[in-house]
Structures are given as structure tokens and as C-alpha cells.
Amino acid sequence: MLLTWKPPMEISVIWVVGFCVLLVAHGAQASSHESSRNLQETDQPYRTGYHFQPPKNWMNDPNGPMYYKGVYHLFYQYNPYGAVWGNIIWAHSVSYDLVNWVHIDHAIYPTQPSDINGCWSGSTTILPGEKPAILYTGIDTKNHQVQNMAVPKNLSDPLLREWIKSPYNPLMTPIDGIDPDLYRDPTTAWQGPDKIWRVIVGSQIDGHGRAILYRSKDFVSWTRIDSPLHSSGKTEMWECPDFFPVSTRSSNGVDTSSQDKYTKHVLKASFNHHDYYILGSYKPANDNFSVETNFMDSGMDLRYDYGKFYASKTFFDRAMNRRILWGWINESDSESDDIKKGWSGLQSIPRTILLSETGKQLVQWPIKEIEKLRFKNLSFHDKKLKSGSVLEVPGITASQADVEVSFELPNLEDAEILDPSWTDPQLLCSQKKASVRGKLGPFGLLAFATKNLTEQTAIYFRIFRSNHNYIVLMCSDQSRSSVREELDKTTYGAFIDMDPRHENITLRSLIDHSIVESFGGEGRACITARVYPKLGNSRASIPVCIQQWHLKCQNLKA
Ligand SMILES: *[C@@H]1O[C@H](CO)[C@@H](O)[C@H](O)[C@H]1NC(C)=O
Ligand SMILES: *[C@@H]1O[C@H](CO)[C@@H](O)[C@H](O)[C@H]1NC(C)=O
Ligand SMILES: *[C@@H]1O[C@H](CO)[C@@H](O)[C@H](O)[C@H]1NC(C)=O
Ligand SMILES: *[C@@H]1O[C@H](CO)[C@@H](O)[C@H](O)[C@H]1NC(C)=O
Ligand SMILES: *[C@@H]1O[C@H](CO)[C@@H](O)[C@H](O)[C@H]1NC(C)=O
Ligand SMILES: *[C@@H]1O[C@H](CO)[C@@H](O)[C@H](O)[C@H]1NC(C)=O
């Protein structure tokens, strides 16, 4: 039953504290898994140490995450037969801490006419009496997308190893103008004060993304509501929608059915290879979701992550009163590389997700459990970085690191003027790569860097001036991440909604063999990159702090 334990991780930590770079690094932790880890690293340099991965094969969307009777569950889209997409089922893993995972038997796989051609994404809802129910998309005998239900066979088993499909499947079908190819990914359902359940399903109607709304009294018989929860004329198909409340006054997460005057609602949809979200106020009485901004309406489109991150899903963790976000991070190498590696796809580090202080966007932060993997802290204090200088962070193994840096900027007036045509942060980052010297920036971190910097992944900032405001640009430049040429090395970028006159610029990066997951401005902008460094052993590479300006690196939050 238990296939493998994820080996305990080895991680190095760099802190930047005080008027200084305080580096906190940890040596390798000896463990019973040490020898197998070393073996694994020799022929699998790109397999991660502390990100969620199945032992082999293809993985994409996270499905139905939940907390049940002391156990965290993660299901995911999985191909049991290879490292490319196909034969999709729900694989199942369980954890007590969201860090160490056990892979158990597959939960949902084709058995019925309503899912015989595939068991695609969906969500879990915990029904009254602590009864989980999964809604998922099945691909039926006609290759139509339909929505099905499954429930645990034995509610006393906290691992929920076996699932039974509803005899009423499919519960929802593509009728009345719904395209049977564009109708999938039911959300976690929520209950209004009227005790009626609501759920949305992603679709595209008349060329536009739409969240089709259903209601049900018993969770089995669902009625489609004429008006969608929301739709948008500026996007196509919405995959993996998510709809949930966030608190406007507390730093706790909110259960999916909760709703009061201190909540706002988030609608997330996956399209154009990214996860976009909008905020609004939701009234269950008439299921009116009145939005503050709309998808693709402004230059500043809100995304969970401005790098690689797709088909994500949140759940409410009632044990810790927080909402946690999981997202699928795909590969940047080729399909034949994936076949050679024997696997494809990662899950992001689970992130807590909250409304920002301004109420205008969400902020994300790695769950705090990940910090218990830190050992051997390494720290730097009071480092002034000169223009063009690179500060090496010695003494840590760089293939697995958790880096926190904070930059204090002395002379903001020197910032370059932002040309009003520079509205696309990703384009700006790719024009002003890490190697292009500016007036205030680039400054940041080089991950997976060889001594001579031939290979480096640069996560950095630039500051611009626009009238009386300052604009903070965050970039992740993969163009020199590997001497391998065939890789996707797209540069990513985001503007961070912050005023550098009033706060220092912080960066946290989780580095793990072939992924760099970065959180800028205390989690207001996130960028995830996949990289495949080749020169030498990635364990020997050194992350360094780069700055082309005088600055002080200073304290981070505890
Ligand atoms: C249900 O699960 C519990 C806990 O694992 C186990 O003790 C019990 O035997 C199971 N019942 C059945 C019918 O399998
Ligand atoms: C939803 O609520 C908003 C704001 O209260 C209102 O302007 C809008 O007309 C409502 N929409 C529907 C369909 O009732
Ligand atoms: C996966 O990665 C490829 C190559 O890097 C990219 O072109 C594609 O858009 C990605 N797919 C998604 C769903 O993000
Ligand atoms: C590393 O530093 C963090 C933060 O200061 C601290 O909580 C942790 O206990 C330290 N770990 C070790 C092994 O010193
Ligand atoms: C940089 O160092 C790597 C080894 O880490 C070596 O393979 C490469 O040739 C060097 N490049 C240059 C330009 O010196
Ligand atoms: C930056 O950090 C330093 C050291 O903690 C602090 O003294 C300073 O006030 C901070 N600057 C801003 C703008 O918050």
C-alpha cells in the first residue's frame, strides 16, 4: 500500500538580517536515506528534494486537496503509464504535515460509462457530518465531458483509501448549448444561508470563458442556473475555476461556505497558460458576484504567479485556520527529456493565501511547515553592495536552499524614469535582462550560479520613477540558467504594488534542483521558474546576492 516515503530534505538557508546579509545555512543532514539520495542525485540531477512529486511518470493538476481527520490529502492528475500526458486518473497521496508524503493507491480511475475515457480534474467538498465528496470531470463513452461524484467507501479510514462512484453519475451533462469539449473542473461547492449547495464548472460559451453555476439541495440532483456566476468577453475557455472567500480583517483563512460583511470573494480561472484572479463581493441570495475589476481589463492583471503555475486549487485547512493554494508547475525541457527522466511535472510548495493589507490583491507565502526542513543556518550582516558587485554566499549547498533577502535602497531619486509605454513587466524584464545595468538595479539573487557565472538564474529587481511614484519591477531571468540550448528560457516579470520609500524590498526564493519559486515584496508578487543547470554538479553551485548599487541588506520578518 505504501509505495514510498519522500526522503527527508536537505536544505540550506540564507537569511539577511540587520544591516547586513545574515546568512543562515545548514550542512547536509545525515539520514538513513542519505545513500539512496546520493544515488538518485547522480542520475537524476533535476528531481526535486522537497517539492511534491510522484515517484515517476506524468503529473499535472492538483485535485481535491483537503484536510480530513488529521490527514492532509492531495489527489492529482496522473498518467500511470508514462511521463507524457494521457490515461488520466486521480492519484492519491497523504501527509500529516504537508511536507512528508506517502503515495497510496490511486483513488479514481475509469470504471463507468461516465468516466471510461478519463478521470479529469475536480474538487472535494466536506459535507455536513464530516463526509467528503469529490466532484470530478469524467470523459464518457462519447468523449463528452460530464461531471461525476465519488464518496469514500469507509469514513473511519482517515487515509480514505477507497472511493465509490455515485450510481447517479453523471450528475451534470453538457446540454442546452454547452460544448461537450469545453465543460470541466467542478469547484469545491459552497452552501448558502438557504442550505442550498452551489458549484461552478469551467466552460466556454460563444467563445468566452464562463463559470456555469449549479444549485442542489442534496448534492446529487443539480440544476443549472440560467445566468453564470461570471463570464468574460476577453478570455476563452476557463479551466480549473476556484471560488472562495477571503477575510478583509483577519489573517486567518475562511471556510468556503462562509460569507459575511468582512469577506470578499476571489474568482480564479486558468487560461492563456496562467492563473488569473479577480476580487468581488458575492451575495448568495441571488448568487450575484459583483466584481471590482474584470479579467484582462487593466494593464495590471492579477495572477497568482507570473512564471510557471497553472490549474491551481485552494482548500480551507480547518486544523490551522488557513487557506492553502497548490499549483501545477510544468517542465521547461522537451517531451523526450521527460521520457528520459521518467517523469514530468511538480506541485508548487503549498502557499497560504490571504487578502493584502490594501485589499486590492492576494498575498502568498510558503506554509510555515517548510521551515522545519531548515538546518545549519548561515548569515551575513551589514553588507554594502557596490555597483556591479557580486557577493558570494559561501558554505551552503546550493541545490536546495531557502533564501530570504532584504534590500535597503539609499538613493531612490536616482531611479530611471519609467517610459509610459513600458506597461508589460514581462517584456520589460526581457528587454532589461539581468546583465543590462540600470540606474537602480538590477539587484537580487543568483541561483544555481557557477563560479564564473556562465550559468546563473537571476531573480532581481529594478526601481523606476514615474511622476512622483516609484515602480518596483521583479524579474526572473532564465536566459543563462543552463548551457543546454533546447530549453524554454522565457524571462518572467511582475510589478510589485509597493512604495520603496516606505519599505525595504524583500525576496524569498525556494531553490530545489530544477525549480526556483520566488516571493517578492512579502508575497505580493510570485514568480516560479524551471531551470536545468548543467555545468558541473548543481550541488556545488553558489547562490549569490548581486547588486549594482550601494545598498544595505537587512532584516526580514521572523
Ligand atoms: C474502515 O477503516 C477502519 C480504520 O482504518 C478499519 O479499522 C475498518 O476495518 C474499516 N472497515 C471496513 C469495512 O473496511
Ligand atoms: C449584482 O449586484 C450589483 C451591485 O449590487 C448590481 O449592480 C447588479 O445589477 C447585480 N446584478 C444582478 C444580475 O442582479
Ligand atoms: C508548459 O511548458 C511549456 C514549455 O515551457 C509552455 O510552453 C506551456 O505553456 C506550459 N503549459 C502550461 C499549461 O503552463
Ligand atoms: C535557523 O534560524 C532560524 C531563524 O532564526 C531559527 O528559527 C532556527 O532554529 C535556526 N536553525 C538552526 C538549526 O540553527
Ligand atoms: C565556467 O565554469 C564551468 C565549470 O563550472 C566551465 O565548464 C566553463 O567552461 C566555464 N566557462 C567559462 C567561459 O570559463
Ligand atoms: C529598512 O530596514 C532597516 C533595518 O531594519 C530599517 O532601519 C529601515 O527603516 C527600513 N527602511 C524602510 C524604508 O522601511
TrEMBL record:
UniProt entry tagged with the keyword GTP-binding: no
Subcellular location: Vacuole
Signal peptide interval: 1-30
SUPFAM superfamilies referenced in this protein's UniProt entry, alphabetically: Arabinanase/levansucrase/invertase (SSF75005), Concanavalin A-like lectins/glucanases (SSF49899)
Glycosyl hydrolase family 32 N-terminal domain segment(s): 51-366
Keywords of this entry: Glycosidase, Hydrolase, Signal, Vacuole
Any single Gene Ontology cellular-component annotation: vacuole
Catalysed conversion reaction: Hydrolysis of terminal non-reducing beta-D-fructofuranoside residues in beta-D-fructofuranosides
Any GO BP annotation: carbohydrate metabolic process
InterPro entries in UniProt: ConA-like_dom_sf, Fructan_Metab_Enzymes, Glyco_hydro_32, Glyco_hydro_32_AS, Glyco_hydro_32_C, Glyco_hydro_32_N, Glyco_hydro_beta-prop_sf
Keyword RNA-binding: no
Principal subcellular localization: other
Ranges of residues in domain Glycosyl hydrolase family 32 C-terminal: 369-538
GO terms of molecular function: beta-fructofuranosidase activity
Family listed: Belongs to the glycosyl hydrolase 32 family.
Record protein name field: Uncharacterized protein
